[in-house]
# Entry
Amino acid sequence: MAAQQLKTDPKYDDYDFPTTSPQVQSGHPGHTTAEQDAQVYQLRMQLEQAGYSERLDTLSMLRFLRARKFNVQHAKQMFVDCEKWRKDFGVDDLVQNFNYEEKPRVFEYYPQYYHKTDKDGRPVYIEQLGKVDIAAMNKITTTERMLQNLVVEYEKLVDPRLPACSRKAGSLLETCCTIMDMKGVGITRAGSVYGYVKQISAISQNYYPERLGKLYIINAPWGFASVFSVVKGFLDPVTVQKIHVLGAGYQSELLGQVPKENLPKIFGGSCDCDGTCELSDAGPWQDPQWARTPKWAGSKDEKSDVIENRSPGTVPTHDPQGGAIPETKQDEVTAGQKAP
# Structure
């Protein structure tokens, strides 16, 4: 199918970045059928009739439809559930008023951050699960704040990170490349790690659909690959293709996806960001050539500069790790989108 221009709706679509997906795959922007375009219209119309007026842009409609195999009713229910969750969780307020001041201390036990891009131009998201100590982390922060930080980071992946990466790549990028490092994850901590990852994965899958590009699980412990081979039988084949389970000899395959200069030294790359890759939030979203003020910041430019502790003209993002720079209060990041 030859790429075509995205059919947009002037009432909801106001994009300042490319809108054609590099993936020649049915249902992706620029590669839709007449029937799929009609389903976008149908979904939006039903949501309007139900009283919804936000996040009805074409790219969002397509993501929810893809997540539900273009079943309009199922996609509608997913969207309705998501909007209810956003209201209950206070997402719109969090993204503007979040201050994860304890982040450096939390990172001593659970580093999780966005750092530069892969060879396809997507944001790279990294989690190191080996040092996770829930008991120790609960002395520094709370599970609620960690989850709030997770949500803020997802919101900032959606804008400004992905739009900036799309501008630089010259094509639409809607997903990220996730690296989950399981080095040090032993039997004694496996239960608490699994419980937490399961919780944040649910947020990713249910409320931020179609954000996983590739997932590299590195330093996977003995037996993990065998367990995954069983679990993947219950997963969607498209999802399975995105997941790569690697042991200690992961570097060759990982460097095939992430440029060496963009990968932190700890994983075999050459980047050290002056020793603070996990706190740098380095990426196109910090480059004035590609970055723009996030739509969620609206006209609050002055407030945005305060929130991010950055000088006017730079993009409000997150502080270290691609999290949320000191804003007001809440907390945590996700298992990559295990989704982005």
